């Protein structure tokens, strides 16, 4: 596996076109429409989790929108790629389960994860971890996360969801065929995105072997069109939501965290989240960025780790959902046209406007968003992430990758899959050791030592 260069990914270092209203460090690689399409590429993950936490755990959506907008601004400027900002999924899953964490406990879990990632990044330990991890194991984590997103997406499309209890609570009730959130609408969105963007590859190989860039993503911002349709349908499905909107941002309040809240948040939320944050939010993101943007300097794992830590040390004290970067979000934004930091800056502008104008009442609009459309967007994000694992060159590498992915999916634990992959990789390396040669060299060494001792004895005599 390629090692981290230790240098940050500098925005705008490889050319591109500037926009007058954005800083010079933000340069477009394609077009404004393409970047706008990429801006909404990871909302299939973001919206269900944030909506579920707002409904079931009373998370302040307005505060979360404002702080995640600030995170998006910062990551767009610093990294220069469509670096995503997503909720920490394991913490959200525990908060929405039978444990049902309170807001102070959720924030405590986020602060604990932030402290560990800050330590790993600031000391450089994250860079060493990145260098030592075998590539097949990283690919296995990416494959499992991508397929997990895809499986969840298919559930969103096929079955009715109840986000008042969970972000992935599929009921056994099949989605109706027709209607404003019916199966036909979701399938139409799916076909439209495929026709507009194809397999997601924006390059064609010409007859002379040269590569030329396709312009389909630039001409048709498929994800943006589909998302805009979903917003319109929110008001069509329930016109009364307009009456429930309250203008103005939610007031900022410090979250009061007791020692008991911290203990519960650490053991229930932070401990299961830490492996996922290290593997998917840092390691997999850095590797995926080098796959998607080979012409750019490699992301520094230490800086990505510090980025996640600083985000949460700022926002969690005010009740913003604990967030991280994620390989799935990066894959989704790239899949729908995001090629630069402008993509997440556009997303930040949208989030900030909604958070300042509607505050926490925006949850009424999201509550009516067609879930089938979110499932379609999440499906493409998951498939794009899973396809990063297609570069395994040998059967042995594929074997390690598939075992790692299978255990991760079956046990619903990236940490368990990671451990299995590492053990399997080491066992396969042990099979390659030439034990006969080692024994022979050891025997020869022992004989030489004996001969030397004998000669020394003769000289003494």
Structure description:
With 461 residues, the protein is mainly alpha-helical. Helix content is 63%, strand content 5%. The protein contains 19 helices and 8 strands. Helix 5 (103-123) runs antiparallel to helix 12, helix 7 runs antiparallel to helix 18 and helix 11 packs antiparallel against helix 12. The longest helix is centred in the middle third of the chain and has 34 residues, at 259-292. The chain starts with 16 loop residues before the first strand and ends with a helix.
Discrete helix count: 19
Shape: globular
SSE order in H/E notation? Answer: EEHHHEHHHHEEHEEHHHHEHHHHHHH
Mean pLDDT: 85
Low-confidence stretches at least 5 residues in length (pLDDT < 50)? 1-14, 204-211
Structural class, from helix and strand content? mainly alpha
Please describe the biggest sheet, giving its number of strands, its sense, and whether it closes into a barrel. Answer: 2 strands, antiparallel
Instruction: State the share of residues found in helices, binned by percent.
Output: 55-70%
Q: Radius of gyration in whole Å, from Cα?
A: 25 Å
Task: Order the strands across the largest sheet as they lie in space.
Answer: 1-2
Strand content: under 5%
């Amino acid at each position: 596996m390629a090692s981290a260069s230790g240098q940050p990914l500098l925005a705008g270092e490889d050319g591109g076109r500037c926009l007058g209203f954005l800083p010079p460090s933000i340069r477009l690689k394609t077009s404004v429409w393409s970047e706008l399409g990429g801006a909404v590429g990871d909302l299939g993950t973001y919206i269900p989790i944030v909506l579920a936490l707002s409904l079931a755990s009373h998370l302040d959506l307005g505060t979360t929108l404002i702080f995640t907008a600030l995170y998006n601004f910062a990551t767009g400027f610093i990294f220069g790629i469509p670096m995503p900002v997503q909720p920490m999924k394991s913490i959200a899953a525990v908060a929405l389960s039978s444990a049902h964490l309170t807001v102070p406990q959720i924030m405590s879990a986020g602060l604990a994860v932030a402290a560990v990632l800050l330590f790993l990044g600031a000391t450089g330990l994250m860079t060493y971890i990145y260098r030592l991890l075998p590539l097949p194991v990283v690919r296995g984590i990416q494959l499992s996360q991508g397929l997990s997103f895809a499986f969840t997406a298919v559930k969103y499309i096929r079955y009715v969801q109840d986000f008042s209890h969970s972000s992935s609570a599929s009921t056994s009730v099949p989605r109706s065929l027709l209607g404003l959130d019916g199966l036909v609408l979701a399938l139409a969105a799916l076909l439209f995105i495929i026709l507009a963007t194809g397999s997601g590859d924006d390059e064609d190989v010409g007859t002379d072997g040269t590569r030329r860039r396709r312009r389909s993503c630039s001409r048709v911002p498929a994800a943006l069109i589909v998302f805009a349709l979903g917003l319109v349908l929110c008001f069509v499905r329930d016109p009364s939501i307009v009456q429930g909107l309250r203008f103005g941002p939610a007031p900022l309040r410090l979250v009061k965290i007791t020692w008991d809240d911290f203990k519960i948040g650490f053991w229930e939320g932070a401990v299961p989240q830490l492996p996922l944050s290290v593997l998917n939010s840092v390691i997999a993101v850095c590797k995926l960025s080098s796959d998607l943007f080979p012409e750019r300097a490699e992301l520094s794992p230490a800086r990505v780790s510090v980025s996640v830590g600083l985000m949460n040390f700022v926002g969690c004290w005010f009740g913003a959902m604990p967030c991280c970067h994620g390989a799935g979000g990066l894959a989704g934004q790239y899949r729908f046209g995001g090629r630069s930091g402008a993509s997440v800056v556009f997303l930040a502008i949208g989030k900030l406007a909604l958070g300042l104008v509607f505050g926490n009442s925006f949850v009424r609009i999201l509550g009516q968003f067609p879930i089938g459309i979110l499932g379609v967007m999440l499906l493409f994000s998951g498939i794009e992430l899973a396809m990063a694992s297609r570069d395994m060159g040998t059967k042995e590498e594929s074997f390690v990758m598939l075992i790692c992915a299978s255990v991760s999916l079956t046990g619903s634990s990236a940490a368990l899959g990671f451990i299995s992959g590492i053990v399997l990789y080491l066992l396969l390396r042990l099979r390659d050791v030439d034990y006969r040669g080692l024994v022979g060299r050891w025997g020869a060494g022992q004989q030489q030592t004996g001969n030397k001792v004998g000669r020394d004895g003769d000289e003494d005599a």
